[in-house]
Amino acid sequence: MRRYTILFLTAFLFVIAVVAGTSYRVGADERISELELTAYTTLPPETVTILSEAYEKENHVRVNFVPLPAKDLIQKTADDAVSDPTVVETVDLILADSNVLTSLATKQLLIPHASEINDAVKNNFKDKHDRWVGVWYDPIIFCTNKDYLAKIKEIPDTWTTLANYKNVRIGITDFLVADAASNLMFQMISNFGDAQTYQILRGLHPKVVQYTKFLSNPVRQAGMGETDISIAVESETLRYMQEGYPLKIIYPADGTSYILTGVGLTDKNSSKSIEAKKFTDWLLSDNAQLALQSNGFYFISTNPNSLAYKSFAGKNLVLFKDASNFTDNQRHDFLERWVKYVRFND
Question: In terms of pLDDT, which residue wins out, 100 or 9?
């Protein structure tokens, strides 16, 4: 059984704040940013705005993020690679999920960058040729209502156990509307095989209270007692826990899926490549995690030397291998099969 109560200690944030404070200049010491970087991203604007503002305060370098859907980002990066840099300003770096970065690396659109800080990142969180490195990840967990947990004798801590569990109300995000949700199915198939995966999903289905449209809703439902256990992203669960909701996290003992966010460089000839490399390394720092956590975003750092990583109780959870080997057609077929034989097979 793997069961943890996540508490982000005030002391940890205080230590990081002291470190960060040595690099921040305010009031009369502020000056106009000396340089601007351009980054394409698949992340929400509210997330990258936090990072951009924190980095600019600390380093006087502005990072202009351009949010794009995954397919558009890949195409625009490819177009930039063949454009005339004297006419069109090209992008300096990409901050996106690992599937996007893997696609860009395969197309030879990213350049290698090795540094002391990203060398410490585990191999499963980065490209083997250093063309991109993961900076944080967000796993799927069992988000459990505390009152429900206190009443049961056996805690469901595996996917099969949860699928076979009696008298439980489950919350989950619809696989068709969120990448983190569909990624769960794909990674389960990679690790369990399709037959066992659909058996688990069929076992879960009758207990699902609602297939929600947003990743936060299953967490809210568990916190409000509308569900007993929700299958949810950990970042949203931690955010609700920080707001006082009665929740506990169970990490599936037989493994779980995750969304890995990483960064890669695009232009080796850019005059701004040195600054771009500095920013990619900064994303692995405690200062980046402090900026995110201070604004309610709780991800697991991939940097094992960071205080954010060392203080995180669930950093050794079992992770599935990724599902990047599936084609778009295969992913479409998996979802269609789920819709036909599970979701609407009542």
Answer: 100
* Beta-sheet strands, E only, within 221-299: 229-233, 247-250, 258-265
Domain interval for residue 167? 139-256+319-343
39-90-270 Cα angle (round to 5): 95
Residue 245 and residue 277 share a domain: no
Contact 38, 64 (CB under 8 A): yes
Radius of gyration, alpha carbons of the chain: 21
Task: Tell me the pTM.
Answer: 0.86
Report which of 319, 301, 318 is spatially closest to residue 310, judged by C-alpha positions: 301
Segment holding 138, helix H or strand E: strand 133-145
Res. 340 pLDDT band, cuts 50 70 90: very high
Domain identity same for 206 and 277: no
Cβ(221)–Cβ(230) under 8 Å?
A: yes
CATH number at residue 98: 3.40.190.10
Q: Please list, residue by residue across 188-218, b when 16 or more beta carbons sit within 10 angstroms of its beta carbon and e when fewer do.
A: bbbbbeeeebbbbbebbbebbebbbeebbbb
* Same domain, yes or no: 170 and 24: no
Q: Which residue has the tokens 């991109």?
A: 132
Same domain for 202 and 326: yes
- In Å, the largest CA–CA distance within the chain is 68
Same domain assignment for residues 16 and 87: yes
pLDDT of 324? 66
Q: Are residues 208 and 331 in the same domain?
A: yes
- Note whether 97 and 125 are same-domain residues: yes
Distance CA 136, CA 128 (A): 17
Higher pLDDT: 92 or 28? It is: 92
Domain count of the chain?
A: 2
For position 298, what pLDDT does the model report? 94
In the predicted model, is pLDDT for residue 212 greater than 60?
yes
